[in-house]
Each structure stands twice: as structure tokens, then as C-alpha cells.
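Structural prep section.
Before we set up the soaks we want a predicted structure of the protein with NAI in place, mainly to decide which crystallisation condition to try first. Input record follows.
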Amino acid sequence: MTIRYDGRVAIVTGAGQGLGRSHAIELAKRGAKVVVNDLGGAKDGTGASSEAALAVVAEIEAAGGEAMANGANVANYAEVEAMVAAAMEKWGRVDILVNNAGILRDKSFIKGSMEDFQLVLNVHLMGSVYCTRACWEIMKEQEYGRIVVTTSSSGLYGNFGQTNYGSAKMGVIGMMNTLVQEGAKYNIRMNALAPTAGTRMTEGLMPEKVFELLTPETVTPAVLYLVSEDSPNRTILCAGAGSYAVAKIVETDGCWLTPEEQTPEGIAAHWDAITDPEGERALQAGFEQTGKMLTKAAAGLGISLD
Ligand code: NAI
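Run finished without errors. Recording the C-alpha cells verbatim:
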């Protein structure tokens, strides 16, 4: 069955080019009305222009779709609120939010300025917070919402020179993990995309041949699935060059140590058991960890917690 978005309104941030542009075009092709948001600045976040967003809207309209351009800076809450209000005024609902806008200020940790660090957090993390917050009540009332945050292998696994970016990209995962719990009873689902694509952001970092394989169009199907009606929830979907995979944060089963062993030396002595991957699991909420530890402690001490 073809997955479509007829009657749905989508906001895609940073949709003037690269991945966001591809997401917006494909959503519109499949029936969604799309807010094409883009500040239109340079890769490092400086400057602004409405040109790129307007060009994407023209492209969507030429193909028979519906779209509106928006120049809000996602790091500015008032501008984000005005963007969502404009979408509501024109189309009366917001069903899909793809938090995609992003910038880079790469430098090794000690060489980068704290201003750059803050700016990168503001755009990626606070930008996702602002856009999600501005749509949240609307989605709650509709009892329908599909939200994607864009993370990165730099956040999940680290990348030299990207402390600011990696911190922000892991921050959005923390936001998702909690919001899936708060949104569950309103049919608001939230997922994360970890893309790898040849765009302005990655230009010059890889050979031309590789760049050509990593098209945004190979990533976009992942986003479209994550914002579909039958989407998964709380998934980190990795996509690039036609490969798709899921990233998970797992915790080892671990082991309980006797009170005498609860010392740094005891931990060193049991390191193999503590880190043993056998039985490791992706926990679904913070309290599951506490529950697991209390169960082990009760068993170890031979007591009941009832
Ligand atoms: P891009 O540089 O081609 O596009 C990003 C867009 O966001 C630009 O059009 C820019 O004008 C817009 N933007 C930047 N700051 C904004 C702001 N404050 N408000 C509104 N719009 C703003 O980059 P690309 O590669 O398409 O990246 C899209 C997302 O994917 C970003 O969040 C990026 O961090 C993430 N990502 C990309 C990867 C890649 O391999 N290209 C890898 C991992 C994550």
C-alpha cells in the first residue's frame, strides 16, 4: 500500500536545501501541505535569505503540490510560534514536524569558542525544543502528531572536532525519550533520524564518488516512514546511501555486588561481569533501570520489596 499524507500538514525546518528540501518535496508529492521553513544562512549559521525556501515552494507548486515558505529562525521561539500560527491560519492543523534545520561550527573542543558551542546548541537542540513545543498543544488537541528529530552519528558515537554538534545531537535523543512518554496518550509519536548524506554540510569531507552515492533522496524514505500514520515510536533510524538500520542505547544486565564488594576494587574485580553483553537490553524508561537494580539488590540481600 502506498503511504500518503493527504489532509496532513507538515512543517519541515531547514527545508531550503539538502535533506530538508528532499523531505519537503517528497511529503508534498504524497499529498501533505508543507511549510518549507528555512533561515537561508550560510553553513555556519551566519546570514539569512528567503531565496532557498521560495525556490522549494515553487518546485512543489510546479509539481501540483501545496506549500508555503517560512523564514523563521528555529533558534528564536517567537519566530517559531509565528510560523506555527501561520500554518494554523492557512491550513488549520499541524500533523507532522520534521526538526531538520542545522548548522556547523566544527573545532576541537579547546579551540572552539563558547559562543559557537552555545549557538550550535541553540539551533539544533533549542530549535527542536521550540518547534516541538509550539506544535505540542495543537497535536494534543488533534490527538495526532508525528515528530522527527534529526540526530547524528556524531552525537551517537562521537566525531573529532564536533563536541558542540555531538552534544546537541544527543540532546535531541534525551528530549525524544521523555516526550514519547508524555505524548503517548495523545497519539503523538516521536522518532529520530540519524542520516548520512552528501549536502552542503558534508561537502569537501568525502570523495566525489562517495558524495554521489549519499544522496538526500536515499535518506528521505526513512523520514517519511517515521512520520507516517503507522510509524514506529521512539526509534533512532539511521539512513544513508540506501541502507537503513536502527541504533539503540543498551544497558548490560550487570551484576549485584555484596556490601563488602561495593568498593572501587570490587568494581574492578567484577568488570567483566558488569560489562558482559549477554542479556543487555534497550530500556524504555528511566524507572526500568531503578527497578532492575532494586530487584537484584533484593535477590542478593534475600529480602522482599513488597
Ligand atoms: P544543509 O546545510 O544542507 O541544510 C540545513 C538547512 O538548515 C539549511 O538550508 C539552512 O539554511 C537551514 N538552517 C540552518 N539554521 C537554521 C535556523 N536557525 N533556522 C531555520 N533554518 C536553518 O544540511 P543537511 O546536511 O541537509 O542537514 C540537515 C540536518 O541533518 C541537520 O540537522 C544536520 O545536522 C543533520 N545531519 C546531516 C548529516 C549529513 O550527512 N548531511 C549527518 C548527520 C546529521
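Observations: The CA atoms of residues 37 and 70 lie 5 Å apart.
Flagged for discussion at group meeting.
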